[in-house]
Amino acid sequence: MSIAGWLQIILVLALVVVVAVPLGGYIVRVLAGEHNFLSPVLAPVERGFYRAAGVDERKEHGWLSYTMAMLIFSLFHLLVLYAMQRLQNYLPLDPQGFDPVAPDLAFNTSMSFVTNTNWQNYAGETTLTHFVQMLGLAVHNFLSPAVGLAMAVALARAFIRSEARTIGNFWVDVTRSTLYVMLPLAIVVALALVVLGVPQTLLGSVEATTLEGAKQVISLGPIASQEAIKELGTNGGGFLNVNSAHPFENPNAWSNMLEIWALLVIPVATIFALGRMVGDARQGRSLLWTMAVVLLAGIVTLYAAESYGNPLLTALGVDPSLGNFEGKEVRFGQAMTALFATATTGTSTGAVNAMHDSLTPIGGLVPMFNMLLGCITPGGVGSGLYGIIVVALLSVFVAGLMVGRTPEYLGKKIEAREMKFVMFALLIYAVNVLGFSAASAVAPFVVGDSGYLGNKGPHGLSEIIYAFASTNGNNGSAFAGLNGNNLWFNTTLAFAMFIGRFGYVVPVLALAGSLAAKKKVAPSVGTFPTTGPLFVGLLLGVIVILYLLQYFPALALGPVVEHFLMLNGKSF
Amino acid sequence: MSTKMQALSLFDGAILGRAAGDAVRKLDPRKLARNPVIFVTEIVSLVVTILFVRDVVTRSDVAFFTGQIAAWLWFTVLFANFAEAVAEGRGKAQADTLRRMRSDTIAKRLVDPHTRQYQSLNALDLKIGDVVLVEAGDLIPSDGEVIEGIASINESAITGESAPVIRESGGDRSAVTGGTTVLSDWVKVKITAAPGSTFLDRMIALVEGAERQKTPNEIALSILLSGLTLIFLIVCVTLWCLAGYSGTTLTVTVLIALLVCLIPTTIGGLLSAIGIAGMDRLIRFNVVATSGRAVEAAGDVDTLLLDKTGTITFGNRMASEFIPVPGVTERQLAETTLLASLADETPEGRSIIVYARSKYGLSEQNHLAEGMSFVSFSAHTRMSGVDFGARTIRKGAVDAILRFVGTAMNSAPAPFRQAVDRIARTGGTPLAVAEDGKLLGLVHLKDTVKPDIRDRFAALRAMGIKTVMVTGDNPVTAAAIASEAGVDDFIAEATPEDKLAYIRKEQQGGRLIAMCGDGTNDAPALAQADVGVAMQTGTQAAREAGNMVDLDSNPTKLIEIVEIGKQLLMTRGSLTTFSIANDVAKYFAIIPALFIVTYPELGALNVMKLASPQSAILSAVIFNALIIIALIPLALKGVAYRPIGAAALLRRNILIYGVGGIVVPFIGIKALDIIVSALHLA
Asked: What is the pLDDT of residue B211?
């Protein structure tokens, strides 16, 4: 670890906070339908959409209608995206003449983009046409975070309303999120990326002759626009297979910093937005501090583990001074790789600028743990906010009784109904991650010699757990040693993404409905304090204990034992 | 606080014996199904027992280990049952006493309520609306309302208070309770409760816990615990697969051991005991709650509505100051007034004597001396006093005394006039004193605020509870008393409608209200309040409207009720936190033990340096069972509540039960491991 490295890390995080504070206020205004500086341009467009779709923007939904609208919207897009891939050879913008995508891969990919996961079992540049990339995938890079933001705001509204039957209008929330938040930011960041050297073209590829005289095909495409929303929308699906490690997606240190900034800024802004909505900025800040502590602890651990290097390689005579550099890009260095890996998994982005499979066991444990938490530090666009609120409700319920009152959070009593939804959401994650991991770990065609794992022993298990932690948390990053493009993983991972997204948000929206219907409770000195260091400590305790308890055995058999084996000079 | 029902100690030998038997009876799975965590424990105990039999039959070398695990799992279930049985034990003993009163009462049902002709029948055959005659020496057969007559009644059977109370038709003293005894005279009582639902029946059911319903918060907590149980079930089942991948075949016994250690058996086992003990604590305070829900609501109360008279003040006017006119000393005035009051038996007169003596150390003379003649108060003169020798001393209403000395108010000395004004403004009563036609000064009589009440309100404020004084006084007087007592708000010139409106307004603002009352006109407000405490001496309407009845009829008790509610919730939260925090150490004991053969390197996680894998697992299971027993006293006594504000309370409890919950099992499991390996149990 170096001071220069830390300065870079701190600089990026500081820039995130500086922009996120006003952005949070902007998000609140936009989703409340208030006038803002883009209204003169975008308001007519917005109204045009409502008129075309026959939506009455003043009519709000109860939680069930809101949920149904969200599900219908997502299902419709799932089918369209699937059809697009299966028919891509008949569609325009196919300079390379690709074949249709195989059914299981198309299913996996559609699910992946509709759920904001962007798990990629395909290699973009050799599988998908520009048409599918731009009108299929890129569109969902906008819509899936917009859906996330809509749901988070719907949940936040539940806290500020008293005895209300509605939580907002889904169509209006999604339209405003896309139009006012995602789109303008994506345009600015895309242009900045072009300035920093990221290609933006409709050409398919160019051929080059290398110094040795060999022919090399260099893939090109509308990369900058894709790249911008890939980070801003915490999507993570790269235009190119090696994602942000590729010089065309992420050419230099500045673009690297911009991309890390972009993937953090909206999730962080959303947390500030909550503070504004409930009229107490401290509420948002406490949640953010909690997230920040987990994030920083992750960065420290990952940075330290990677800087320490691999004693097995040191024993073979590799210079340990630079740390473990396998799978990393020299132009980013250890510090900005550690920050990227932690931030991309703390959010549900899943873009990578290094190969996570090559991280040291403890280094790899960090992204894995972030995702096992459900990507809530600071989380995906929207999903981070509702994810941390679920954790907060759980913490307040367990510990809140200790002040001698029935638990309440942000002025709402937490009773049996709310606990049912919270526990259901938690249970969904445990079943999803552990169930699919366990099934894969005992399937002979997965773990056998000609199976889908790149490694044997604990690291093989890590690859499986990582895959389901990633898809469940709608992250999308991977331990690349796992071969995911086969019927088993295309299907199971798609289901894991589906359950991780919709199995989780349905109880969350039900929770919103239940909370909105409650009377707001007045705070007093006797009220459980949900701000300040004590509450942050409590949240951290619950996160560490409750989540560690669920995944400790699995992690012990994966990265933890791998670490001890490494220290003892053993490998598989 | 009353100690009448405290005769039975927490761990009475008889109760413990009975509880041990009950613990076994409670193994009935149909009953245990109400408690998911312990129910799961029972099922897996059965599974391990079957495995033990198999191991014995096949002469497996793990039979001894399996047998011990099975035994400790059964102990876990039994300990949980025992905790509940102990909590119920005291109530059962009380219920037996109460039940004896109910049986065999003969009622005298009047054929015609206007005559006194009756037919005898068993009290259990009475119907609502029947009118019965109860004469001196009779037990009142059921709850009812006096419609004719007046009688003194001994209610000690219900309240434990042996001083008789008066019950008469009409007004706020008309309600009588079945099981109490008429001491003198007779009353005609109209029965208002059906057999089986009388106050006594409700009390029996309550102390016994027979119809105990889970309270809302208990239900929510059960959902959390069931959810955690399910999650850990998934963890253990999937662990079998993940272990299989790693080349370890886990036995069902060790997986079950892990499961039982992880699921929250501690709080699961103690949850209902905590609830029962909370109700029991209330009953020992002589408060009967109609539901556990009300006790929980008491913990959440934000605003207390307190009647001024009797709660905040003593309710009778007492001397608090002597104000002489110029030229007279305070001592002179005190001496003279004392003489005038020697034979005065009114509370005001008594208070003057007490005050004059304590303040000026005046003589111990208690009675009128020879030659003194007392002039008693009459509505006509509105003065009283004493004549002896040439001295004529009078005290009384200011205008009456002024007339007595032959002056008008505006010609009285200025300091005198100012003092009269000041006293009236602050809600006191000025009492003028004169001797031989000369005005001496004033005695300030005021409704004295109870000495410790200010501190109690400060404590309530620290809890986050707002106190509101309700009084019939005018706003100026009310404000003066309110500031002296330190209440946060007051309702002056209050009518029952004002009370109801205030409660509604507070509830609209998201606050929970507690109040107490006794009159029929309090009934709507009692019903509207979240916690309504009716006085036992109150009317039937009031007692039915509230959700608690205070048998001591002491309105100050609202404060204790709130504390009991808070204590109940705190105990639940603290033990839940403790239970979950315990799991960390259990993992460090069990996980390395499970995989030590495949991955000796995982021994690094064996931070407690436990002797062997088997002893590690056994020690964790034993700890898990014994901790339930160890925590029974805490569950029954409750975690102490301190009015130090939520933040400080939270910090304290997190430190004790959260951090403590992480640390304690590391020590406990290590100690057990030393014993287990020393005894060669594993």
From this structure: 60
CA distance A249 to A132: 18
Q: Write the pLDDT tens digit of every residue in A415-437.
A: 999 999 999 999 999 999 999 99
Structure tokens at A91: 């569609």
Cβ-proximal residues to A364 (8 Å cutoff; 6+ apart), any chain: A356, A357, A462, A466, A479, A559
Q: How confident is the model at residue B6 (pLDDT cuts 50, 70, 90)?
A: very low
* Residue B593: pLDDT band with limits 50, 70, 90: very high
- Rounded CA-CA distance A419/A423 in Å is 6
Rounded to 10 degrees, the C-alpha dihedral B468/B471/B476/B482 comes to -40
The gap from C-alpha B453 to its chain's centroid, in whole angstroms, comes to 18
The model's pLDDT over A380-418, given as tens digits with 9 standing for 90+, comes to: 999 999 999 999 999 999 888 898 888 999 999 999 999
Mutate to test the interface with B, among A391, A396, A406, A550 (most CBs of B within 10 A): A406
Burial category of B390 from C-beta neighbours within 10 Å (exposed 0-12, middle 13-18, buried 19 and up): exposed
> Is the separation of the CB atoms in B188 and B110 below 8 Å?
yes
On whether any CB of chain A is under 8 Å from the CB of B561, the answer is no
pLDDT higher than 90, residue B192: no
Any A CB within 8 A of B570 CB: yes
Which chain B positions have a beta carbon within 8 Å of A419's beta carbon? 220-221, 223-224, 227
Burial category of B120 from C-beta neighbours within 10 Å (exposed 0-12, middle 13-18, buried 19 and up): exposed
Q: Where are the domains of chain A?
A: 3-567
Q: Which two tokens stand for residue A103?
A: 């059914």
- Choose the closest CB to B238 out of A398, A406, A435: A435
Give B 585-604 residues with CB within 8 A of chain A. 587, 591, 595, 599, 601-602, 604
Determine the pLDDT at residue B97: 72
**Residue A262 to residues A15, A234, B52, B68, B217, Cα–Cα distance (Å):** 10, 9, 60, 58, 43
Catalytic one among B307, B344, B447, B530?
A: B307
The 10 Å Cβ neighbour count of residue A567 is: 13
**How much is the pTM?**
0.87
Q: Which helix (H) or strand (E) holds A194?
A: helix A183-195
B247-270 pLDDT, tens digit per residue, is: 999 999 999 999 999 999 999 999
Candidates A393, A464, A554; CA nearest to B243 is: A554
Confidence of residue B7 (pLDDT cuts 50, 70, 90): very low
Asked if A401 and B510 come within 8 Å (Cβ–Cβ), the reply is no
Q: Name the residue of chain A whose CA is nearest to B594's CA.
A: A553
Residues paired with B323 in a beta bridge: B442
- A564:B602 CB<8 A: yes
Give chain B's length. Answer: 682
At position B592, the amino acid (one-letter code) is: P
3-state secondary structure string, A503-550? HHHHHHHHHHHHHHCCCCCCCCCCCCCCCHHHHHHHHHHHHHHHHHHH
> Do the Cβ atoms of B189 and B176 come closer than 8 Å?
yes
- Interchain contact, A527 vs B570, CB within 8 Å: no
**What region does B310 belong to: left with phi over 0, alpha with psi -120 to 50, or beta?**
left
Residue A176 in contact with residue A51, Cβ under 8 Å? Answer: no
Q: Which pLDDT value is given to residue A240?
A: 87
For A555, nearest residue in chain B (alpha carbons): B242
Rg of chain A (C-alpha set): 23
Closest chain B CA to residue A546: B580
Interface contact flag, B224 A397, Cβ < 8 Å: yes
Question: Which residue would you say has higher pLDDT here, B574 or A211?
Answer: B574
Is omega for the bond preceding A378 within 30 degrees of 0, making it cis? yes
Tens-digit pLDDT profile for residues A99-109: 999 999 999 99
State yes or no: is B12 an active-site residue: no
